[in-house]
């Protein structure tokens, strides 16, 4: 959940680190800090955002060609100046930044206290740096070795970088369960939680694997080994995205930019995979596992948050088209309930970040039980992408806004392609119907663009409901997950309580809440259970609820009943989620902006949840 960035080379470290922290701020933003090594090792840290740290450091000494920096999302200890990272060792000769949780920090801390160590913070991280220094002094080993020995005593998750004033040109870093990327420049190295702070400096990167330690020294080759002391050859990869993907490009917020990117990102998700003219859908990444997919008796999809909603759309798609039974599970529940699963099962993990701790743990569990694990991830080289047997990247590009938008539509696009591919291979769909759907799928990016043109209208509807205290979102069939996603978007960024419900379930509870104060967003597009949804709308109207309806262009019946209607282009029922989600993203966005909320960095949330 935290962001870490470090630099060693010939350039001034401070501007690189502070810019890197801004890029990583989406990962956590309750406190931030920097350690710079010039003549001595100095730490500057403060509660608040990266901008607060930058202000705080205005009149401080910025010198140093080596440094480490951190933006935090608190787990151990409240967010304050003391708990912020980096943390010094006892002698102040070492400092550390850490992302993750040291689970056995309690016994380690007691042991260190019994040997005279005193702790200034409430963090688990401080335990680790004392331990490293203790080993270094008592066992007379060098810094990389002391880090290695210490990590062998640690239970939990970590990505760490250690700096020492004995080594003005060296950093030692390691990972387990939290991501870490090394960027290789000219006579210099960058280390970071993801590639976003690195891409403007170099495209050559090495993604560390779990339990790997890297020692980087200016002007020398990096040294990579496992914590069991096995030397490894670094695998250097090329970053495939550009700097422009990380900038707001004239938009007020990343979230708005990402909403507007969807015609492009959906196209990118389909590129090289959908060829409507020749009637071909193919997913190269999982081709080897296709025979297994075609014969499987069921698929289990695991995910969290927005990705879980995409997975639900996937369930409807795979069952309808490929006739494969699908179960969709919250990764956090799946991992703790001893699920019935074996080598005949196929598990698909869906994750934007590829780092979500619960999803990773669920994968491990399924793998232990012998299942085949496939991934649908956005972040290339992420932990989940590497923990799966095979997978498909969504290619939506970096998503910075904490509330997921373009990643959702990209995930749904991939699941649609997967369902279509399996259906045509299994023969569960007529060729003519298959062609009809893929022709329409190719039209979707253009129709998303058309939907985005409704932004002004949507913004004026949003204005009316800025002061609502509750919202209900209703949908049936393919539009049920859309309703869930719409409600999640609103609560995440505007802090208005919102619930998504299958429209027909409303009468089993939420109907009790409906009065003239209650806005109800109903996704009532013209295919599927349209008449049933119409009845649900009447039920809301009878109780004086305010209806905001998402309807198909040209709709008459719902428009007559609804207080406000948003008309989206006509499409296949099973492709509606790709269009109907757009106005819901925009409603949430505009309401949040009008309520003066921090859209890109909502309170208490983080983009990548690497803790349980
Ligand atoms: C966090 C993010 C959500 C995201 C969820 C799952 O809660 O704020 O936007 O949907 O994690 O993340 P993943 O990266 O696995 O899709």
What does this structure look like?
The protein is an alpha/beta fold. The chain has three domains: 3-239, 4-Layer Sandwich (Glutamine Phosphoribosylpyrophosphate, subunit 1, domain 1), CATH 3.60.20; 247-451, Glucose-6-phosphate isomerase like protein, domain 1 (Rossmann fold, 3-Layer(aba) Sandwich), CATH 3.40.50; 453-603, Glucose-6-phosphate isomerase like protein, domain 1 (Rossmann fold, 3-Layer(aba) Sandwich). Helix content is 36%, strand content 23%. The chain contains 19 helices and 27 strands. The strands form five sheets. The protein has an eight-stranded antiparallel sheet with strand order 3-2-4-1-10-9-11-15, with helices on one face. Strands 5-6-7-8-12-13-14 form a seven-stranded antiparallel sheet, covered by helices on one side. Strand 23, helix 16 and strand 24 form a beta-alpha-beta unit. It is globular. The chain starts with a strand and ends in an 18-residue tail after the last helix. The mean pLDDT is 94. Bound molecules: 6-O-phosphono-alpha-D-glucopyranose. 6-O-phosphono-alpha-D-glucopyranose is lined by residues 304-307, 351-353, 356, 359, 402-404, 605, 607-609. The site of 6-O-phosphono-alpha-D-glucopyranose has 16 residues, from helix 9.
């Amino acid at each position: 959940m935290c962001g870490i960035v470090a630099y060693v080379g010939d350039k001034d470290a401070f501007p690189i680190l502070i810019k890197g922290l801004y890029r990583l701020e989406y990962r956590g933003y309750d406190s931030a800090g920097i350690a710079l090594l010039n003549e001595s090792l100095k730490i500057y840290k403060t509660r608040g955002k990266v901008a607060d740290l930058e202000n705080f450091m205005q009149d401080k000494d910025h010198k140093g060609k080596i440094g480490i920096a951190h933006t935090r999302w608190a787990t151990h200890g409240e967010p304050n100046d003391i708990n912020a990272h980096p943390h010094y060792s006892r002698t102040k000769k070492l400092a550390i930044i850490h992302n993750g949780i040291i689970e056995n920090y309690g016994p380690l801390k007691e042991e260190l206290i019994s040997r005279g160590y005193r702790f200034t913070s409430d963090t688990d991280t401080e335990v680790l740096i004392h331990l490293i220094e203790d080993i270094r002094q008592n066992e007379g080993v060098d810094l990389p070795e002391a880090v290695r020995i210490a990590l062998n005593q640690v239970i939990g998750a970590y990505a760490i970088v250690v700096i020492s004033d004995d080594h003005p040109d060296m950093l030692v870093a390691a990972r387990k369960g939290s991501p870490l990327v090394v960027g290789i420049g000219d006579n210099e190295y960058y280390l970071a939680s993801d590639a976003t702070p690195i891409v403007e400096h170099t495209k050559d990167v090495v993604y560390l694997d779990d339990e790997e330690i890297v020692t980087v020294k200016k002007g020398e080759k990096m040294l990579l080994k496992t914590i069991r002391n096995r030397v490894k050859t670094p695998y250097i990869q090329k970053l495939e995205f550009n700097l422009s993907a990380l900038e707001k490009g004239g938009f007020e917020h990343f979230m708005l930019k990402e909403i507007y990117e969807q015609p492009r990102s959906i196209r990118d998700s389909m590129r090289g995979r959908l060829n409507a003219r020749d009637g071909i859908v193919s997913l190269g990444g999982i081709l080897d596992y296709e025979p297994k997919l075609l014969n499987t008796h069921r698929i289990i999809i695991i995910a969290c948050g927005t990705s879980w909603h995409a997975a639900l759309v996937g369930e409807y798609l795979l069952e309808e088209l490929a006739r494969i039974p699908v179960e969709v599970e919250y990764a956090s529940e799946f991992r703790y309930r001893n699920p019935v699963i074996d080598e005949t099962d196929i598990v698909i993990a869906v994750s934007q970040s590829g780092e979500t701790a619960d999803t990773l743990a669920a994968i491990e569990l399924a793998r232990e039980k012998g299942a085949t694990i496939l991934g649908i991830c956005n972040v290339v080289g992420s932990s989940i992408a590497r923990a799966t047997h095979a997978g498909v990247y969504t290619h939506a590009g970096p998503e910075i806004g904490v509330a997921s938008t373009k990643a959702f539509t990209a995930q749904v696009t991939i699941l649609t392609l997967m369902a279509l591919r399996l259906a045509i291979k299994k023969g569960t769909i007529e060729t003519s119907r298959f062609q009809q759907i893929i022709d329409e799928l190719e039209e979707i990016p253009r129709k998303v663009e058309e939907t985005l043109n409704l932004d002004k209208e949507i913004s004026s509807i949003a204005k009316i409901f800025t002061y609502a205290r509750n919202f209900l979102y209703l949908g049936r069939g393919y539009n049920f997950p859309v309703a869930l996603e719409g409600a999640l978007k609103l609560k995440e960024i505007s802090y208005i309580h919102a619930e998504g419900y299958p429209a027909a379930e409303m009468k089993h509870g939420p109907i009790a809440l409906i009065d003239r104060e209650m806005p109800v967003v109903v996704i009532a597009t013209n295919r599927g259970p349209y008449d049933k949804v119409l009845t649900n709308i009447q039920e809301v109207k009878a109780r004086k609820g305010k209806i905001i309806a998402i309807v198909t262009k040209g709709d008459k019946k719902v428009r007559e009943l609804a207080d406000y209607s948003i008309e989206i282009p006509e499409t296949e029922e099973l492709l509606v989620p790709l269009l109907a989600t757009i106005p819901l993203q925009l409603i949430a966005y505009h309401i949040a902006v009008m309520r003066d909320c921090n859209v890109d960095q909502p309170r208490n949330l983080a983009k990548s949840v690497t803790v349980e």
